[in-house]
Amino acid sequence: MLIARNLTKNYSNLPVLKGVDIQVNKGEIVTIVGSSGAGKSTLLHLLGTLDTPTTGQISLMGQEVTRLKGRSLADFRNRNIGFIFQFHHLLPEFTALENVCIPGFIAGVSRKAVRERAAFLLDTLGLSQRYDHKPNALSGGEQQRVAVARALINTPAIVMADEPTGNLDSQNARELHQLFFTLRDQFSQTFVIVTHNEELAPLSDRQLVMKDGKIVDEILSARP
Ligand code: ADP
Ligand code: ADP
User: Fold this and answer.
1) Running DSSP on this structure, what letter comes out for residue 3?
2) 132 close to ligand 2 (CB < 6 Angstrom)
3) What's the average model confidence in pLDDT over 49-74?
4) What whole-number distance in Å separates Cα of residue 14 and Cα of residue 9?
5) pTM of the prediction?
6) Is the beta carbon of 74 within 6 A of some atom in ligand 2?
7) Domain ranges of the chain
8) Average pLDDT over residues 16-31
9) In sequence order, what are the residues at sequence separation of 6 or more whose Cβ sits closer than 8 angstroms to the Cβ of residue 149?
10) The complex's ipTM?
11) CA distance 165 to 109
12) Fewer CB within 10 A of the end CB, N or C, for the chain?
């Protein structure tokens, strides 16, 4: 699903990633952990094709994405990758349900199918009473969960998440990781998740430990 070889990234000649190799299989849930400044977000941005490595190759679903540019890169990203970030940018003039549905409508899926999937995701995320609320009528945690549902509406093959539970209380955070497992089991989706949450990091198949721009350890998790 994802193979990255010898990734390095320099910011104004300062090395931030110093040779990272990663392989993630289809349907795997991998967490990336490590102290602040280790390079986790930088790595996730490279794997998600949002930024380009200084050296190295990334292949996603058999496509060498480090060769794609412009429109073909944007198309590949929109079709295959879902992003969950902490700063969620919901559209303020639309309701929660509409925010979740919009990427599905844009993708051209039937309106009925999109609404059903949006309702399933919102319900699973504990938002069944919030369909018609606009973002400013929702708490920070609720807005984050709407953004998660929106990221998942088109069932992207691979989901890149940067601190997806950062705004959530511990119960909602645990439920979000459980949703990732449900989706993996149902749709074989693949998840790469950067997290500081030591309780949740093991709620994965595998933890990659980053330190000072490198992956220094790999911990296999017991299936929760
Ligand atoms: P983590 O996610 O593990 O906290 P980051 O990938 O955010 O680590 O950052 C790794 C290092 O790269 C840090 O020292 C950070 O200051 C630096 N860095 C990140 N982004 C940039 C940037 N755009 N320009 C310069 N330095 C950056
Ligand atoms: P969470 O734990 O999800 O962050 P909060 O404790 O912040 O939730 O909010 C509890 C309830 O208050 C939520 O159901 C939410 O809908 C409501 N609420 C929070 N902030 C606002 C707001 N600015 N306007 C209206 N309702 C709000």
Assistant:
1) E
2) no
3) 95
4) 8
5) 0.84
6) no
7) 2-220
8) 97
9) 100, 118, 121, 122, 125, 127
10) 0.63
11) 29
12) C
